[in-house]
Amino acid sequence: MPGPRIAIATCADYADLKVDDELLGEALQARGCEAVSVVWDRDRVDWPGVDLCLVRSTWDYHEKYAEFLEWTRRVEAATALHNPADLIAWNSDKTYLRELAEVGVPTVPTLWAEHGSDLDLVAELTTRGWEEAVVKPVVDLGAKNLHRVRSSGAAQDALATVLSRQDAMVQPFLPSLETEGELSLIHIEGAFSHAVRKRPAPGDFRVQSIWGGTMAPAEPEARHLEIAERALATLDEAPLYARVDLVMDLEANPVLIELELIEPNLYLSTDQTAAERLANAVLTQL
To answer: Secondary structure of the chain: what % helix, strand, coil (to 5)?
Structure first.
């Protein structure tokens, strides 16, 4: 009797970055599953014939946002989807950070601006004492449409650029990004699995590998784990996988910068048993 058929959803680009997908596929196959890679917006799939679909490296979803959300709902109507479509939709709009902050999760201070807003950003930055800020869309990925600006006309122009397309968010620039980068805590079924420290390339502040960022295994402190647990506790149920990204704020306190529940790189290659733990968790979902 054939084993469970698991689809690992990916995208057409970034082939050299999909080590996670390969390791997970191997771990699933070692457990008697048939693991198949599926380009979410290209491959035709008989979804009722798939036992479970994992959204893993759909790193272009922000460019086809409405299409992607519709795809998740269509897949979920035919088979099990992880993480679930409603959770993906919620997490895809970064205003979820406002919800987490409202219930006490430490987050990066954020100014929100709706599409079409005439917000005077220069005045806001002056009032808040933010000498330098980051302006970005609420739907984005990999810091691709991010603007690092000072409290000048450049800041207003950057905001106008983002608001011409969608809602925007503005945060103080955190110098710790250049020196310490981000600490990412990976959780599987709500339990801490492993962590990595992501650092930017010299002269940059973006930690993603597409900008030259690097990563290495890390050991989180109790305060880091506590923030991650607080963030995940706000969800109705533990997601199959989650990545909690923390940074040091202007007061040198750890805060949440992102809670990644859609397609995060889980850095499975940095921990010898991480892929096995995730594969075992997938089997529990079946």
So the answer is: 35, 25, 35
Report the C-alpha gap between 129 and 123 in whole angstroms.
10
Q: Three-class SS of residue 266?
A: coil
Question: What b-and-e string marks burial along 4-17, b requiring 16 or more CB atoms within 10 Å of the CB?
Answer: bbbbbbbbeeeeee
Structure tokens at 51: 């036992």
Q: What is the C-alpha separation between 52 and 35, in angstroms, rounded?
A: 10
What's the whole-model pTM score?
Answer: 0.94
Q: Name the residue among 4, 8, 44 with its Cα closest to residue 23.
A: 8
Cα Rg, the chain, nearest whole Å: 19
**Contact criterion met (CB below 8 Å) for 41 and 68:** yes
Cross-strand bridge partners of residue 31: none
| pLDDT, tens digit, 9 for 90 and up, residues 239-268 | 999 999 999 999 999 999 999 999 999 999
Q: Which domains does the chain have, with CATH numbers?
A: 5-92 (3.40.50.20), 96-106+176-265 (3.30.470.20), 111-172 (3.30.1490.20)
Q: Which positions ≥6 away from 34 have C-beta within 8 Å?
A: 2, 3, 4, 5, 6
Inter-axis angle of helices 121-128 and 153-163, nearest 10: 120
Three-state DSSP at 224 gives: helix
Sequence-distant (6+) residues with CB within 8 A of 73 are 85
